[in-house]
Write a structure and sequence with these properties.
Elements: E1 7-10, H1 17-25, E2 29-33, E3 43-46, H2 55-58, H3 61-67, E4 69-71, E5 81-83, E6 88-89, E7 95-96
Parallel strand pairs: 1-2, 1-5
Antiparallel strand pairs: 2-3, 3-4, 6-7
Length: about 110
């Protein structure tokens, strides 16, 4: 799934850092939730063609905050893949998270 995705959304948690590095390296447009979603436009847009730093640096939310454009869900293209952590998943695929609500499933534009 990741290989075919052109637009990826990932959470800013440390376990997803490899996805945040690999996405731009492979030319994927990446959206990362602003930590704690404290902004009016709660996502960083990391366009690999416009990154002023390496993908490794851009993967760090505090560094992305220095240069990334912030966007709201209505400014995003259709998301091909959402990458987020989970506490558990049942057999039907229902996930149990930490309760912060950060993954932003409405951003998938179903």
């Amino acid at each position: 799934m990741f290989d075919q995705a052109r637009v990826v959304k990932a959470v800013p948690d440390k376990p997803q850092a490899p996805v945040r590095v690999l996405g731009p390296r492979q030319g994927k447009l990446l959206f990362v939730a602003v930590p704690k979603i404290a902004a009016a436009k709660p996502f960083y847009e990391l366009d690999p063609s416009k990154l002023p730093v390496s993908p490794e640096e851009a993967a760090v939310p505090k560094k992305a905050a220095l240069f990334a454009r912030t966007v709201d869900t209505d400014e995003m293209p259709k998301i091909d893949l959402l990458v987020c952590g989970t506490v558990a998943v049942n057999r039907r695929g229902v996930r149990l998270g930490k309760g912060a609500g950060r993954p932003g499933f409405p951003a998938l534009h179903q």
